[in-house]
Automatic annotation (TrEMBL), chain A:
GO molecular function terms listed in the Swiss-Prot or TrEMBL record: nickel cation binding
Keyword tags: Chaperone, Nickel insertion
Annotated PANTHER family: UREASE ACCESSORY PROTEIN F
Protein name as annotated: Urease accessory protein F UreF
Keyword Chaperone: yes
Automatic annotation (TrEMBL), chain B:
Task performed by this protein: Required for maturation of urease via the functional incorporation of the urease nickel metallocenter.
Name the UniProt record assigns to this protein: Urease accessory protein UreD
Family to which this protein belongs: Belongs to the UreD family.
Record's subunit section: UreD, UreF and UreG form a complex that acts as a GTP-hydrolysis-dependent molecular chaperone, activating the urease apoprotein by helping to assemble the nickel containing metallocenter of UreC. The UreE protein probably delivers the nickel.
UniProt source species: Candidatus Halobonum tyrrellensis G22
Record's keyword annotation contains Disulfide bond: no
Amino acid sequence: MSDREEAAADDPLAALESFRLADSFLPVGGYTLSYGLEQFVADDRVTGADDLRDLLATYLRNQLGPAELVALRAAHAAAGDGDVDAVCDADRRLTAVTLPAEFRESSRKSGRRLLSLQRELRDDPVLDGYAERVEEGDTACNYAVVLGAATGVAGVDADRACLLCCHGFVTGRLGVAQRLLSLGHTDAQRVLDDLRPVMVEAADDSVGRGLADMTPFSPLVDVLSAEHERADRRLFVS
Amino acid sequence: MAADANADADGPHDTDAAGTDDGATDDADDADTVDVPHPAFEPYARETVPQAAVGSPGKDGRLELRFAATSGGTTLVHDYATVPFHLSGTLDYDPHPDGETVFVQSPTGGVAQGDRHEVTVEVGADAVAHVSTGSSTKVQSMTHNYAGAETTLSVGSGGHLDYAPEPTILHADARYAEEFSLDLAAGASAVVSNVVVPGRLARDERFAFERYLSRTRATGPDGPLFADATHLTPAESDPTAPGVLGEFAVYGAAFVVAPDRDAAALSDTLHDAVAGGADGDARAGATELPNGAGVAVRALADRAETVRAALHAAWDRARRELVGAPAPAGRKY
């Protein structure tokens, strides 16, 4: 860890910022997004806490680690350098490897909410410049990229930002699962606790990858997401 | 052929031109770095091959096909093939009146360690071409190095390409990296499909290969369209995990790339074509590709035939929409 990163990890204000961004209280609409989970429940593939944990582990290992966290790290570094073009590049590349249409839409929706929230709280030239490019329709505004840029400008270090993203993703889906399954609060906490090593694994996996090496791979999730697009009854956007 | 194989693992054709114009931060310019499609293949690339060396004749097969629209329909105007590729002319087989078909054959038993294959297919403006293989590609067991194939496809304005090889079968201990890059001019379209079988299933060989990486990248007149990857390392990461392949063994994907078409409508049409739900059908679905590029179809099943049938159904619908003719029959023998 560099001195700068070490300072960032110790900065109490950055720590508080990371708690705020990881909190399910953060108003980015995650409760409307199941990322295919609704279809896994409808298909009886997820019926309880164990199935849920195993499926969420796949998301962490096969989607977040090899793709979203890679883009997050790139956006984090770019924001630290004040390089809006590089943030947009990470954004466009993440869009290009996110093949399920509902996932792109979900990521864009929550990304836009987070970006506008961050800009309400404080002025920052990188976030403002990026928002301008989003407005121009130049780039999509993926959630992981906004989170990377926001943590980059707030001085939250990149490894922590990756863990924060994993934690936020899992708690968001646990909230969804509680409305789809009979999943008690203790069970939900147990899944979150059990998945800690997988979150660390996903964050580590993203370290050595460049933007050209994003390789998300979970075809059954993609197929069920395609079915969800056409499902007659659905509670969630994705 | 060189018995003493102190191979320069780079081989003679290590150009990195296809699609890695990324300005990414990861390419360290280390003198010791060997040119590999993915860092995971680097340790393999350093291993010498005990038989013919990497890059020696027979190991560096090349295939070049160029199609052009002529007054008599689409014609194969340039072809070049070295072992293990073999061509025996074109076939008058396509239901499209102007379509031209090439089935690439192989006189060898399959893809072996140290092989580096390069395939280039160019479809000129307004030409309609279909390229496939006559039989499955068998990727044989390996103890040294790896095998790689690079396929570069391009389609000129108003042209159409169907690139739909027979399935790839990964034998035990195989290490195989394949890259597909597709570039479309304005008004062009393509269907690119690929099916991977994780072993000789009839002899209960399943997920016994070491590593398989298949990447597909597409660009259009306005830049990158999408990128997809299949990366399987069964010993390290369970391919049958929920959401990955689940209870299925065989996986296939078809990319219907047509940036000038209504992707939303095409996606629904193709989904209807593949989402069977009956016993014996593949589990399959279609979704819109990013950047308005077209539609991705993915299919999973226990048997290669089932996945092929689903992808063929999608291909058939897509072809009717894109070129106004059905897909050719799937059977080749």
